[in-house]
Amino acid sequence: MTHRIVIVGGGAGGLELATRLGRTLGKRGQARITLVDANLTHIWKPLLHEVAAGSLNSSADELNYVAQAKWNHFEFQMGRMIALDRAGKSIRLEATTDEHGLELVPSRTLPYDTLVIAVGSTTNDFGTPGAAKHCLFLDTRKQAERFHRQLLGHYMRAHAGDRSPGAIDMAIVGAGATGVELAAELLHAARELAAYGLDSISPENVRITLIEAGPRVLPALPERISQPVHQTLLKLGVRVMTNAAVSEVEAHGLHTRSGEFVPCSLKVWAAGIQAPAFLRELDGLESNRINQLVVLPSLQTTRDPDIFAFGDCAACPQPGSDRNVPPRAQAAHQQASLLARSLALRLAGKPLPEYRYRDYGSLISLSRFSAVGNLMGNLTGNVMLEGWLARMFYISLYRMHQIALYGVARTALMMLGDKLSRSTEPRLKLH
């Protein structure tokens, strides 16, 4: 029987792995590759802040799993994993329903010989009172589009009124990469909306407060990156609050532990991550306090060598350190590349290599205003970048993701299409 490899999670890492395995093991008939995801389409998660602001049209930049599977010799199954039977070597998929509760795809069992779990992470609100009820999150395309609709709603209400100057107050909890990039993208969107005639709310009256519990913005990145980003945000008019933990969220604002109240009509929670709750003690697999599956350096789970996990949902040790691999896109990409080789070696009965995280630097986009970051490598050393050059490198990250999925030729055609469409489409999504 052909070896069955089931990959759960069609995020950047899971999709890249399925594509790579399909082009090798699947094409040669050495394994049957199946990708499982609850959605029909994929969009690169680091771009969700652009979807929220309207700078990116998610319908134009989405990838269809069914088509990708056809082109790259793997299968796609729509469904959400809800249970695991390690003894029977199968997973259980939840039934898929439409918005009216009508069943579209039934609940079913999917057998495997090798299981790879790459379900990513979700935002962690740390149980803050009112956060789940009153804050928006940016974990999925649907959530980002919901934020965009609410943002446009504020502008449309002001535009339909008496044309008196309006204002909008927004708060972003968490000054990590998502929070910082969202703040800058929203300021850019404010200028674009005014340019299209929705000027009842002027860019000057878009008031954004960025709230960080730690001592500085971008706490996970080097201070030499966070300092210029902080200064640029201040110049753009963003109010930055550090050492300010949120204690409670209400409908019209939020409270900090120091007793300050921040009024805001739109609230985004972008602080902290956790793996999906269903991974906690999944049929006896070891997990940590934020639900991540604990894995060995080979990316095999500690209690079952036939089950692998990688990306944000996995707690992978770093050799020589007491910390795990950070939940970053470059780590998931590196792990997907390693697993593409590892699973081929596993079929051949050979030893598996161990994953070692390599930090190639960090890039932060401040929309069209600027970009800041550093590149790290054997040839370049540690090079700081800022401005136009940093933004070009930032954009190249997405193009590299597209090349991994589509190949060089098709990515080049997509880039040409993007350039041609700029003269026929609005610079901002207005619906």
CATH topological fold name of the largest domain: FAD/NAD(P)-binding domain
CATH homologous superfamily annotation of the largest domain: FAD/NAD(P)-binding domain
Q: Fraction of residues in helices?
A: 25-40%
- Provide the β-strand percentage band: 25-35%
What Rg is obtained from the alpha carbons, in whole angstroms? 22 Å
Counting DSSP E segments of at least 2 residues, the number of strands comes to: 27
What structural category do the secondary elements indicate?
alpha/beta
Mean pLDDT: 91
Strand order of the largest sheet: 5-2-1-11-23-22
Q: Can you summarize the main beta sheet? A: 6 strands, mixed
What multimeric state do the chains show?
A: single chain
* Sequence stretches where pLDDT stays below 50 over 5 or more residues: none
Shape: globular
CATH architecture of the largest domain: 3-Layer(bba) Sandwich
The CATH class of the largest domain turns out to be Alpha Beta
With helices defined by DSSP (H or I, 4 residues minimum), what is the helix count? 11
Quickly count the domains: 3
Q: Alpha-carbon distance between the termini?
A: 50 Å
